[in-house]
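Before drawing any conclusions, I looked closely at one protein, both as residues and as discrete backbone shape codes, quoted below without any editing:
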Amino acid sequence: MKRILPFILLLMSMSAFAQQKESEAKNESGEEKESTADTVRLPEQDFFMLLDSDDVELANNVPVHKIIKDSVVFALLDDPEAALIDSLWQKELFKSSLYSNLQDSLINIDYREVVFNELPTDTLKKRLERLNARTPFNVEYNPLLENVIKSYLKRNKKSMENLMALSSYYFPLFEQKLDKHNIPLEVKYLAIVESALNPRARSRVGATGLWQFMFATGKMHGLDVSSYVDERMDPVRSTEAAAEYLSTLYRVFKDWDLVLASYNSGPGNVSKAIRRSGGSTNYWNLRPFLPRETAGYVPAFLATLYIFEYAEEHGFQPPHPRTTYFETDTVQTKRMLSFDQIAEVTGVEKELLQFLNPSYKIDVIPYIEDKKYTLRLPSNRTGFFVNNEEAIYRYADSKLSEKEKPLPQLVNSESRIRYRVRKGDYLGKIAERHGVGVSQIKRWNNLRSNNLRVGQSLTIYPRNPVASNSASAKSSPSTYTVKKGDSLWSISKKFPGVTVQKIKTLNNMNGSSLKPGMKLKLSEG
């Protein structure tokens, strides 16, 4: 028996091994077959081939979303550029706290001595000398400037990394325009001090956009403002206007430090400061006679210039967006289009459309004769849009006719709520959650800035429809189980009032990857 037992065990192990290999072969075969079915792709030039195709199996296997209206079928590939903005970058794009925080630090800039041993004074002096040698700005060592630089390095590192990520999109555009007008390329850092690279930034006095134009100054430089469009928020037009304005200021002052000061406070305040200082034209001698915000303006600019130029030496590691300004293109629109319609027919996320086209105030591109309005898209979407333009306009017209229906009744003033601010909240997030605007929340609560504190109570009048049919109010479940082939964009389209950014915020998601079986929160409940 002892002699036979080893042979029995050997035969059993060989049998088990054979079964395992057979099972693996079946799995591999099944997976390959399933993968083939899931990855059928139509070439980009054949997006509309389904219009004339009778191949039902092909249509069912194409991993695209389809919109069927008046016999027009849009069969679109999932746009690979929809996730161009990585998680950290995208998070900063769609909230306003970065701008408000930098503005507060500019007004209340701290000149007290800052202990930051990682940057010895001698090292800073040598680096400033090198910067001074290659720029027309007076980048000279000053104890006040040293304290500002060290304060930024010590307290604003995260904000600066986020700004560095945004700058990889905007700076190529800025440099192109500045070079055209023979302006030092370092002036690109001015937009960081002005707006924290937020094209929709708006100051407490109404200055708007990347370059913070007031209404009248914007009009002087050809920036149109209407109910639909605010060209002060258009990156291209506002940068062109800023370059023209800066050139004009330099012809007057012949000094770039004074140009910066006058850009912030106005030429009149700078000329007054020159008189009060006894005729000095050195910025540091004028500082005591300038408005408080302007007194901190040039140090903030120089500190930003230093940090960006020596980012590597200080260990900054900004996230790298996978697109730049030059990887986008524009098309001139010939009909009124909404961002929702464009997102549906192109597959480009609405949030990305808002980022690329910030001048459209209510996410609608108007159509007015003798006016030219453009749509900026990722480069690989523009050809598709142009080739199928008429079909897209027909679809937009059909959606417009559908809107001629009674709108749901909105909540009345008696249904106000008291909201308590939680950790991680900011005004944009709270406004999106309740379907209202940031400016409305600020008006209801007499807020002068965007700063909030944990535990603070806010009065809000939610803009959630009061539906007469209770079933419609519960149409969106509180959770959703991810299925094979789902994406954040496709899930958001299944439920009213749910956006990609809302899903990511509720589920603390940094990326856009999903796995079948994953449970996602769709509401606060």
Remarks:
- DSSP finds 24 helices and ten strands in the chain.
- The longest strand covers residues 64-69.
- The two ends are 68 Å apart (CA to CA).
- The mean pLDDT is 75.
